[in-house]
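Quick one: structure tokens for this chain, please?
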Amino acid sequence: MPEIEVKKLDVMSVAKVGAIIGLIWGIIYGIIGAGGAGMFLAEMPMMAGAGAALMFVLGIVGGLIWGFIGGALTAFFYNIAAGWVGGIEFRH
């Protein structure tokens, strides 16, 4: 059975994938947060709309930023660890 060992990750590549995954999670959290903000501020319709929009936008922006930064840091630390103990091995 052939083995493949991932010895190094491209930091920018992992960061971009992390940003997309963060965007997806940000949209999910934004929708949940917007729904919660709308329910709590239902007595003030303008505030409910603003709160819901803010939660949605912050979810997306936060997801993108944290996904990108998290992906970059993950790849960076993976490269250090793989240098010490070897990379992750895949068998197929």
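Strands lie at 3-6, 88-91.
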